[in-house]
């Protein structure tokens, strides 16, 4: 990755100092136009050095000689009661089909499928291969109470 231009570095530093600054505030501090700031801000976003959050720009750090976006760890999402019920049903009878779990939790197959997909995205459940049948729960250490 090439070195940042002086203007781009100044825009990055301005957002580091005040992450929720508007375009006009940054332009005023740097003594340039808002169009210039927007151009460099968008380029910094593409490089992964700035990230938009809810309409604002959030600063990220530059590590050593390489520019690298800082990733913020996301805490595990709490499970909804229906997600917990579906997961418990699969734990009680691994390799169950959606129909079997739907009967256990007294929900429709479609509802169980939706929540099984959510559990797969969370890494708590995996769908078995085509020749095998059903779903299998996965133990995750960052979900200790699940």
**Could you state the CATH homologous superfamily of the largest domain?**
Winged helix-like DNA-binding domain superfamily/Winged helix DNA-binding domain
Determine the structural class based on helices, strands and strand pairing.
mainly alpha
**Averaged pLDDT, please?**
76
Treating each run of at least 4 consecutive H or I residues as one helix, how many helices?
Answer: 6
CATH class of the largest domain: Mainly Alpha
> What low-confidence regions span 5 or more consecutive residues with pLDDT below 50?
58-73
CATH architectural name of the largest domain: Orthogonal Bundle
Number of domains: 2
Number of strands: 4
How would you characterize the largest beta sheet? 2 strands, antiparallel
As a percent range, the share of strand residues is 5-15%
Radius of gyration: 24 Å
Order of helix and strand elements from N to C terminus: HHHEEHHHEE
The N- and C-terminal alpha carbons lie at a distance of: 43 Å
Walk across the major sheet and give the strand order.
1-2
* CATH fold name of the largest domain: Arc Repressor Mutant, subunit A
Helix content: 40-55%
Shape: rod-shaped
